[in-house]
Structure formats: structure tokens, C-alpha cells
Amino acid sequence: MIPVAAMLLASQHLVRLGTKTPVLTFHDVIPHRTQKSLWFDCSVSEFTSILNRLAERRARFVSVEDLYLHLTKGTPLPPRAVAITFADNYLGFYRYALPILRARKIPTVMFVHTGFVGSQVGRPKMSWAQLIELDREGLVTLASQTVTHPEDLRTLSRVTQLKEMADSKASLQKHLGHPIRFLAYPNGRFNADSLQAAKQAGYAMAFSEEQAPAELSSSLFAVNRYVHTKWDRAWKDAYGK
């Protein structure tokens, strides 16, 4: 249950609209699914299938900036709008998802935990050179997912949360040379301190993983997103069949 304080914080900046827009979040993209694959993995064939099925339903893919203007100013989105996001800065995005997104000209946002940029431990992460390439190309908006990707921000003090968010923002801005405006809470977990820290760190909008359309979010600093495995439910919640 989200505390009342969290629901009220910055809610005055979220325009109440009659539309419903699904925001999807993907994590790693892999060549093929195996017995070792995790729930958040999405194979190339699965990723392509989801995009194809959305295209069959005449989905219109919008950027995170489009979504921000829609939620804050009421700027209209096209009919059947869908926003795509990615988490965790996996190299699999660069190798397998990016070529597909480029070919289809689908905008997306990548949330980066800056303490692991370029890491080859476990699942490889994209390097700063690759992130700069994406940033300059413009199809992918780069955003923050804190420095160390805490398992649960709710267990941390507000001061520690603020440092995670502010330091990540500063690192991205130093390497990319422009302001970073958007944040995602690791694992979608947050509390009232998280919302206050995100606002204090200077973000314009932050994302949770509450499974509901973006317009039904409790706050501009807790914008709803569906995990990619719920993409069909997300569509039906917003647009019906």
C-alpha cells in the first residue's frame, strides 16, 4: 500500500486526463531462451513478436518526452499510444534490441545504474562509449536508475536515497553533457522518501512498476509501468481488445 504522503506528493503536477497509456518496461534481451533464462529475459523472437502484435493493433510508439508533456501539460498523444522503456543498461539491449528499434524507428528510454557502466561481471553492461553513441543518435533517451541499484530503496534513509539519485544524475550529465530528467526506481520499489528525494535531486519525472496506465499514476514521481510479460494486459487495460 503506497503511503498517502507519497500519493499526494507532486500530484498537482499530474494532469488528470481521460486517456489511458500503457508504459512497458523490458530488461535484458537475449538471443534465445534457455533453461537458465530468467523471467525478465526477453529473447529476440519474443521481443519481435511483442512489437509485431502491437503493430497489428496499430500501436503508436511515443517517447518519454512525449509522455511527460502529455502528463504535465495535457499535450495529446496519438491514438493507441504505447511507451517503451528498458532497465539495467544490459549489453543485450545494444546487441539485440537496438537494431530492431532502429529499423522500426521506435523511441525508447534506457535507465542506467551508473556504478555498473561497462561492467563485465555477471551480465555485461553497456560502456560509456556505447551510451554516448545512443545519446547522440537520439532514438534512445538515457535516464537514471541510481548508482548501485539498491534491491529496495524503502530500506534506505532519505539521505542515502538522495545520494544514490543525485550522484547517478551527476555522472550521466558529466559523461553526456546535458541534463538528465528522468528516473526509475530499482525494481519499482519506492516510498514517500523516494519521491521526495527524486524531486530534490532535480528529476522531472520518475517511474515505478505499478501495473496500471500512466494517467492513473499516483504522482508524476511514481509513473506506472507494466513489466513486458504483462504487455497484453497493459494493452487491454488501456484500449480493450
Account of the protein in words:
- The protein is of the alpha/beta class and 241 residues long.
- It has eight helices and ten strands.
- The chain has one domain: TIM Barrel.
- Strands 1, 4, 5, 6, 7 and 10 form a six-stranded parallel sheet that branches.
- α5 links the parallel β6 and β7.
- α6 packs parallel to α7.
- The longest helix has 19 residues.
Descriptors:
241 residues; alpha/beta; TIM Barrel; two-stranded parallel sheet; 10 strands; 37% helix; globular; disordered N terminus
Describe the structure concisely.
Helices cover 37% and strands 15% of the residues. It has 8 helices and 10 strands. Helix 6 (158-176) runs parallel beside helix 7.
CATH architecture descriptor = Alpha-Beta Barrel
Helix/strand class: alpha/beta
> How large is the count of helical segments?
8
Largest sheet: 6 strands, parallel
Cα-to-Cα separation, first versus last residue: 29 Å
- Cα-based radius of gyration, to the nearest Å: 17 Å
What fraction of the residues are assigned to beta strands by DSSP? 5-15%
Structural domain tally: 1
Find the count of extended strands (DSSP E, 2+ residues): 10
What best-fitting shape do the alpha-carbon axes yield?
Answer: globular
Helix fraction? Answer: 25-40%
Average pLDDT, rounded to a whole number, is 93
Question: Would you identify the CATH H-level superfamily?
Answer: Glycoside hydrolase/deacetylase
* pLDDT < 50 runs, ≥5 residues: 1-12
Reported by name, the CATH topology is: TIM Barrel
> CATH top level?
Alpha Beta
Order of helical and strand elements: HEEEHEHEHEHEHEHEEH
